[in-house]
Request: fold
Amino acid sequence: MTLRTAILTGLSGLLLLTTTGCGDWIHGDRPSSWDTPPEVRHRIGLSGSFALLDESLNAVHLIQVDGSSELKQTRRGTGKSVVNAKASPDGDRLFVLTEGDQPRRKSTDERPALWVYDGTGSGDLIAKYTISDPLSGLAIDPEGRYVVVYAAGSSNAFVANPNELVVIDTSEPPSETNPLPRTLRSFGGSPQRLTFTPTLNLPAGERRLLLVETDQDLSILDLDHLDRKEVTVRLSGDYKVVPAGVVFTDGLPSRNDDARVAVRTTKENSVFLLTLVEQFNETADNDFDITINIIGLTNTPSDFAFVNTDGGLRLAMLEPNLRRATLADPDTTTVTEVDMPAAFGRISLVTQEVSDAPASGSDVAMLWGGSGSSTSGVAFWSLGKSVGQAYRSIETLPDVASAVGEVVNVPAPNQSLKLLVPSSLGSQGGQFHVLDLSQRTASPLNTKASNLSLTVSADGQRAWFFEPGTQDVAVIDLVTLHPQNLVLDRPIWNVFDIARSGDGRAMVALHEQGAIGATIIDAFSPDEASAVGHVGLLQGGF
Amino acid sequence: MRPSVFFASAALVSLSLVASASLAQPTSPTKPPDSPAAGPTAPDKAPAAPDDALPPPDDEAVAASEQPATSPQPGAPGPVHPPPGSPAGRPPTAVPWYPAAVGPTAQYEPPPGEVEDEGPSRDMSKDFWQVYGGVRTSWIPSEGYNPFDDNDIFNQLSIGASRALVLGPQLSFAPGVMWEFGAVDAEARGARSELIVHRLGAVAEGRFHLGRDVYILAKVVPQAVHTRAYLSEDSSPAQLQQKTWRFGADATAGAAWNIPRSVGSPNVIPQFWLVGEVGYGWTMSKDLELTPDVDEDDPQARMKLNLGSMDLSGVMMRVNVAMTF
Reply:
C-alpha cells in the first residue's frame, strides 16, 4: 500500500464515520440510570439524616445537612422491589425490606432481604439479613433490637405461609439462626398486628414477649427463647372474634406472677384477661403458663389500659357512646363503673407527665373522644379517688371545645406537653391545642388549613405544621408557644426536623416534583430569608 | 447529537464534493491527448507539459525545426502556421507540427481561437488561501456530559479559514481561525436537557506536501470554549442553566486530498480538497453547577445543582471540505 493509498483509505474511513453518525460500537452509551425517572414512595426522616428510596435505581439516598445547610448525599444500593421501609424508634437506623428477584432464575438472583442503614449521618449499610421468602410486613421493636418480618396483605407467591414470622435480632450479625423463621400454629388466622413488650418479670425469670394478634386469636412468643413454641390463645370457638388491641402490665414489682395481657376484640362485649403464671407442666414448651378470665361489658370496648388505683391494679375500659368507664379487678374480675361527664373513647396514662400525681402511686389518665368521635374536650381521671370517691375523680378541661382525634406526644424535656389534633378540620380550618399537663392548660392555636400534618422535633422543642401540597409551614416553639409562619417557594410534601452533621438542627421540607427538591431552614432560628434551597436531589451522581 | 447539526454538516460535505466535481472539466491543458491523431491543427491537443517539464531550448529556431514545443513558453513565440496549399503545410504525420521561426521579422501571432490558458499565478498546491467547513466529531467520556446525550459522541459544525504564509519546497505553515458549533439534547431522569458548545480557535497548521494534490497536516488549535447547559428540572423554580467559558486546545494530524484535480479537473481557482484529521481535543474541566434562570438578586439564584465535573476532552476527528484560492 502506497502512502497515497493509505491516506485515501483513511480519508474515506473518516468520511464514512462522519456521514453515518458513527457506528454503535463506538458510541459509548451513558449509564441507563440517566434514562430512568426517579420513583420515590418512601421518604423517611432519621435522627441525623433523611432517606429517599429511589426504587427505579434500587438505591437509598441518605442525606445529611451540614452547618451551612448544604447537603451531603450518600447513595447506597438496596435490594430490588422495596415492599416496606421504616425508621428505628430513635431514628438511628433505617430498615428497608425488599423482595429481590422474583422468581429467581439464577443462583445469582437476589433473595429477599432486610437492609439496615445507619441513620445518624454516615448512611453506611450496617447489615443485610437475607430471608427465604418475600414478605411485606415489618414490625419494629420499640427498644430497637428486634425486627419481625411477616406476611401482610395478599401475596403473589404460588404458595405462601401467612403464619410465618421471621424474627431478626438486629443487635447480632447475620447467621444461620438470625434471621429465624417461625411459623405460628394456626387455627385459621394470620398475623395482623405485632406488639413487643418490655421486659416482664415472669415466674421463670425476666422475659420479653411478642404478642401476635391474628384475625381470630392471640399468640405469645418468648423473644428470649425463640427456639420454644409460641402459646396461642383461642378467643372463641367459632372464629368470629377478631382481636382489636392488646395492653399489658408487669404488675407489682414485688410479684412475678401478676404480669398480665388484656385483649379486646371487635365483636365481643368483653375483654380477655390473660395472666402469665408459673408453669407446672414439665413437658410444656414454655416456662410460663396462662390463665384466662373474661370480663363482661355492655358494649365492645373502644380502648382500655391497666391502671393503678387507690384500690390496686385495675383494667380501665371505655365503651363507645357511654358516659362511663369500667374498672375491673384483674384478680377477681369484679368491676366498678365510674360515671364520666362525656362519652370518651380513648384513654392514656399521663402519670409521669402531670405535676399533681397522687402520692399513693395511683395513676392519672387522660381521656378524649378519639378519631370519629363527636365527644369534645379532654378530661383527667385521677385514679387515686376512683374507687372510693369516683364522682370527684374527673376533671374536664374547659379550654378544649372541639373533638380531639389524636394526641401527639412530645419528647423530653417537654414530655408534659401533648398536641391535641382535632378529629377533623373544616374547609376554613380549625383549632388545635397544646396541652400542658403540668399546668393542666390547653392553649389553642388556630389554623386555616383543612388538612394538617405535623412533625415534632426529637429534642422536644418545636412542632412543625404544614398542609401537604401547599407552600405554608409553621413552627411552634413548644416552650413559648410562639408560632412562626413561613411561606416556601415550592409546595411541601414532607417536613423533617433532623440533627445537622455539626451542631444544631435543621428543618427539611421536601418538594416532590421532578427529582425531588428540598428547602433547609435552621430549626433554632427559622427564617425564610435564610432558607437554602436544593433541587434535583436524585439527579446525577452515576 | 443534534440531528440538524449533523445533517447540515454532512450535507455541506456532500454538496461541496458535488460542486467540486461539477467544476471538473473534461478538456484540460494538463490532460494527455486521447490520441495522437487528434488533427493537424490541434495544438490544444498537444501533450501537456508535466510539472517537471524541460526548460525551453536555448536556440528556439533549432528547437522549433526539430520538434515543436509542446506548449508555449512565456515570452517565446508561438507556432507559425504554414501558408495554405504549401507542401510544407501538410504535416507528414499526425504529430502536431510547428514550422521554424524565420528571423526576428517573423513575428509570432497566435492562431485565432488559441489564447494562452491563464492558469494560477501561484503554486496552488500549497500557496493558497483556504476556507473550509465540515464536521467535528468528539468522543467525550466525561460523566458530566452524560445528562445531555445518551452516548459519548458530540458532533459540531466546523468552519474555518487559513492562509499559507511560510512556504518551503515541501513544507508550508498556515495560520488561521476556526469556529465550531454544536448542540445536543436529551432527557436526564425525565428532565429535558440541552448542551450548546461554541469553540473559537486560532489555528496553527503545518503541511507536508506529497506532490501537487495531497498533503498531510498537523494542526494545533488553542481555543476559547463557551458552553451553555440547560436542565428543565421540575423541582427547580425555573430552568436550570450554566453558561461558562473555558480554555481548550486540539491537536490533530491528518491529510488533505484534492480529489477533483486528481481525477482530471482543471487547475483553476478555486480548488476543492477533502480534509480529514484525527487527534485529541482537550478542554478544561469545570464543575457542572446549574442554577435557576432567575435574577441574580433573587434568593432562588442561590440554588444549585452540581452534576459533577464536565470536560469536553476526548478523541476527536474532523472531516472538512476545503476550498482553496
Q: What stands out?
A: Chain A is about 5% helix and 45% strand. Chain A touches chain B through 46 residues (CB under 8 Å).
